[in-house]
Amino acid sequence: MTVTTGMVGHGFYDENSAPQWSATETVLPWLEDAAASIADAGQSQPIGIADFGCSEGANSIRVIERAVSTLRSHTVAPILTVQSDLPTNDFSNLIKSLRPEEMSVFGEQVYSALVGGSMFGQLLPPRSIHLATTFNAIGFLSRRPVDRLPGYILPNGPSKQNGVGKVVDAERKAFAEQAAHDLETFLRVRAAELVPGGKLLVQVFGASEEARTCDGIYDVLNDAVLEAVADGVIDRAEYATYYQPVYFRTVEDLTAPVVGASAPLSGLFVLDRAMHYETPVSFVEAFRSDHDAGAYAKRYTDFFRAFTEAVLCLAFPSKDPKPFADDIYARAERLVRRHPERYPFRYISVAMLLTRSAASS
Ligand SMILES: C[S@@+](CC[C@H](N)C(=O)[O-])C[C@H]1O[C@@H](n2cnc3c(N)ncnc32)[C@H](O)[C@@H]1O
């Protein structure tokens, strides 16, 4: 059983994912280089491109457009595009966007499919894909490694700035091991789907020595949930079992499975490049110039509501989901509006580009 049903649908994720797009766009030159190298290898057979964790699809479509347009400047080979997410994901806008007016949105000789399934399983035939990507998604864990996280709502723990709550070393270790296991599983199944020489671009929100993408957002969500505990809306025992099963990796965590002779997957992939980087966040920049705390709090809260609401509602099954979520996020929005300085937000990503080795299967 997966630990989330996905993002908030009905267009809400698409409307509130500009920061994820900025983070994605920064590494698209890597994708263009990867696409060019595949086309230069003289492909005449259909070329397969797959994006895992596509959500409602607005950002994913833009990614695939970039890959297809690079491929098209090198080859006329037919292209298959695959976008995949959990079966519970809201694919409804995406499926309508792929063939407006009976023509592929990606141009001539491009055929598209949507696949529902967990990205931690093999979803496509062996050696069928030339270019695979995932953006802002692989931080979502495949399972909850512990039943309770009584001191905070996120495995990586609270920000240094606020220090609200605690995650102990044994808990941190359980999550770090789960994250490492998930990443290795993801890479193994993608290795099976990729052709030798195929490329895999993995980007995800993460942490550097300077900052972590989780700071700010989970502090305010934690404060909002604790306020609901204090008001008797949630009881303490329920709070102790609720957490967001998401892990923020460093670039060293990300590359560990493939870097070094003893790395478990060093025979499957070669690391072409890797980095951590920070990208601007539109609502933070707007607030810096207009000082409108109300607008800032709304955009900030909608942004993290889009990817935390499903887990929040699953964690409190006795609550009526919509009014419960409305209450928690209204509390969070009020906290940000009143104390914006307490919840600063920065978007740090980690990314790597891999080549599937020819040697092993
Ligand atoms: C924050 S969204 C990223 C969407 C898009 N790639 C972007 O960058 O805007 C994360 C996506 O990962 C998906 N996801 C989480 N766990 C997953 C799993 N085990 N298998 C496939 N998708 C998963 C969620 O459903 C969600 O759509």
Description:
- The protein is an alpha/beta fold and 361 residues long.
- The chain has one domain (12-356): Vaccinia Virus protein VP39 (Rossmann fold, 3-Layer(aba) Sandwich).
- The protein is 41% helix and 17% strand.
- It is built from 12 helices and 7 strands.
- It has helices at residues 12-15, 18-26, 28-40, 58-72, 92-98, 169-193, 217-230, 236-241, 251-255, 282-290, 293-315, 321-338; strands at residues 47-52, 79-85, 110-116, 129-135, 194-205, 269-279, 347-356.
- A 7-stranded mixed sheet has the order 3-2-1-4-5-7-6.
- Helix 5 (92-98) links the parallel strand 2 and strand 3.
- The chain is globular.
- The model has no long low-confidence stretch (mean pLDDT 96).
- Bound molecules: S-adenosylmethionine (SAM).
**Helical proportion, percent range:** 40-55%
Top-tier CATH class? Alpha Beta
Shape: globular
Oligomer: single chain
How many structural domains in the coordinates? 1
For the biggest sheet, the summary is: 7 strands, mixed
Number of strands: 7
Query: Are any ligands bound, and if so which?
Result: S-adenosylmethionine
Q: Supply the CATH superfamily name.
A: Vaccinia Virus protein VP39
The secondary-structure class comes to alpha/beta
Question: Strand order within the widest sheet?
Answer: 3-2-1-4-5-7-6
Using the CA coordinates, give the radius of gyration.
Answer: 21 Å
Number of distinct helices? 12
Q: Spans with pLDDT under 50 lasting ≥5 residues?
A: none
Average pLDDT reading: 96
Spatial separation of the terminal alpha carbons: 28 Å
Classify the beta-strand content into a percent band. Answer: 15-25%
* CATH fold label: Rossmann fold
